[in-house]
Amino acid sequence: MRWKGPPKRVFDTPEDDESYQQFADMLSEQQVSFNRGETVTGVVVQYEQRGLLVDIGAKASAYLPLREAALVPCEDIEALFNIDDSVEFMVISDENEMGQVTLSVRRLEFEKAWQRVDDMHKADTVFDAEVVAVNKGGAIVLVEGLRAFLPGSHLCGGVPSEELVGRTLPFKFLEVNSETNKLVVSNRRAVVETEMQELARGDVVEGYIKAIKPYGAFVEIRGMSGLLHISQISYDRIEDLGAIVQVGMPVKCMIIDHDKVAGRIALSTKTLEPEPGDMLKNPQKVFDLAEETAAKYHERMEAERKAREEAAKVIVMGLGDGLDSFDTDVLAGITDGIDSVLGN
């Protein structure tokens, strides 16, 4: 008798097919679809050489590349995330053949940073930021993780140099445009607004001559530029301005006017002269006695103000006495005349 092998096993195919289909349906229901631009929450599960794996509830762990891990570049992924951290991500790719999607934290932070910057711009706030680079036209400043441009003309107290890198300075926004990724800031606006609040007419301030023009000298004061007009330097006539002041020369001046909105300051050394012409003869004497001379100047101005008020009061009282002396018939005639004109 020939051996015909082991007996054939009989399977209940319909029932097995039904069970498999139910299992497949269950898996299908549990699978989640992710779209580009969608925000998801995931848990960090494993470090990779240039990124990490994240469980977002998909059939395969999602991948976060190091370049997409933060708004400010970082070379150490482990310094940014811990295993089991729950983090928000943006999906930036479709699923590949393995069912894996690529994630980004940088793009989420980018959107949030622009929103914060826009809010700061609308509020017109003064903020501190770090200078991270210097270029030919100005400097690059890091604001909320975004790179902003500081024009050289909007830096107080000098021109941008490598010594500026790493310093934290106050700024205000000049332009914010998220559509064109244009972010421009001003150190000068922030300084002017802050310092201007502390300045008043009549204050004596210290500075140095920044530039000399035919009509006067520009004085650097607390990062701001004030004009010392040639007519405000001395009570005596000045023939040669360069013989009186030089660039870099330290000076003391009195503020005689300022525009807090435009950041303009008008200065005077004439008001600080103990004797007319002292700025031409002995400028150092003027600066040494500046506060004392300013106090006398304010006393004199106050006395003149009170004298003007008294004179005005006398005039008003005199007018009142004059009206009282008018004849009643004369006043009545004036009134009748006015009424007749109005009646016509």
Textual characterization of the structure:
It is a single chain. By secondary structure, the protein is an alpha+beta fold. The chain folds into 3 domains: 30-104, Nucleic acid-binding proteins (OB fold (Dihydrolipoamide Acetyltransferase, E2P), Beta Barrel); 110-192, Nucleic acid-binding proteins (OB fold (Dihydrolipoamide Acetyltransferase, E2P)); 199-337, OB fold (Dihydrolipoamide Acetyltransferase, E2P), CATH 2.40.50. 31% of the residues lie in helices and 29% in strands. The strands form 3 sheets. The chain has a 5-stranded antiparallel beta sheet. A hairpin with a 4-residue loop joins strand 14 (250-259) and strand 15 (264-268). The longest helix is centred in the C-terminal third of the chain and has 35 residues, at 290-324.
**Number of domain modules:** 3
At the fold tier of CATH, the topology name of the largest domain is: OB fold (Dihydrolipoamide Acetyltransferase, E2P)
What value does the average pLDDT take? 83
The CA-CA distance between the termini, in Å, is 149 Å
Query: Could you give the count of β-strands?
Result: 15
Individual helix count: 7
Named at the architecture level, the CATH assignment of the largest domain is: Beta Barrel
Specify the helix fraction band.
Answer: 25-40%
- Helix/sheet category: alpha+beta
Please give the largest β-sheet: 5 strands, antiparallel
The CATH class designation of the largest domain is Mainly Beta
